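Before drawing any conclusions, I needed to go through one protein's amino acid sequence and its backbone structure tokens, quoted below without any editing.
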Amino acid sequence: MADLDPVHLRTFVAVAGQLGFSTAARRLGLSQSAVSRHVRALEAQVGRPLLERDTHTVRLTAAGEIFVGYARRILDLADEAVEVLGETGPRGRVRFGVSEDFAMTRLPDFLRRFTAVHPHIDLEFTVELSVVLHRLLRTGELDAVLAMRIDDTSGGDPFRSWPLFRDRQVWIGEPDFALTAGAPVPLVLYPRPSLTRDAALDALTSVGRAHRTVATSGSLSGLRAAALGGLGVLPFAASLIPDGLAELDTDLPPLPPITFVLMTRSNHVPAATGALIDALRAEHPPFADSPGASP
């Protein structure tokens, strides 16, 4: 077999990650016909169809499922070789997913320090709910993710992960907010799928506490506005409480702790992604509790 063309490999990996030719073409800055040519040339070279496509869908074949892992490793090794031989430190782009509660609180200070040390690394951010970030990492659309995990969630993700810190999950709201005796608990929640939403509903249901959702928002700014307006209470990480809100002293049931976890798809990552991982881990001793977190 002739040497594999890295351009064709990158195109195939992009199509596999996006499961679409047009989306991959936009991400790579190529025409859709060029993407198709690259994939056909690669399939001819390996002698097996790698993708099944029709007018509506694109799927990896059995051979494609196997080959995409090798393609990513080949490209990662090539990038690492160039970076190691360079004299200016790691270079490249890292597609980094961050949960919004972390992005709106601790992330800006970290970014200032990281970009000062690694000016040649470009960070492409995706800020989403943790459940969504897990899915984007699984499909290859992100290189690294910093997201929450509820401590009592059963099962594990098939990722390489580093727990960064553990935090209490508490009920928060406008500092003077008081629950009305005998009335359903008014909740301000992220939309489904959401780990904190599920934790809050499960906790209230387990003790038979009536509740109703009074506000839903996919953004932290929307949740904060609803809570500041006195509409209700919401579950949140104790060390990341937004400005103007506070932990409430209520008779509501306790919530399970939260662990913030850094994840990648595998142990083999390009130097740029490795630099980001190392920097985040250096800021958080292994599995440290945040201030005020229960042991």
Summary: The chain has ten helices and 13 strands. The longest strand covers residues 92-99. Confidence is low (pLDDT under 50) at residues 287-295.
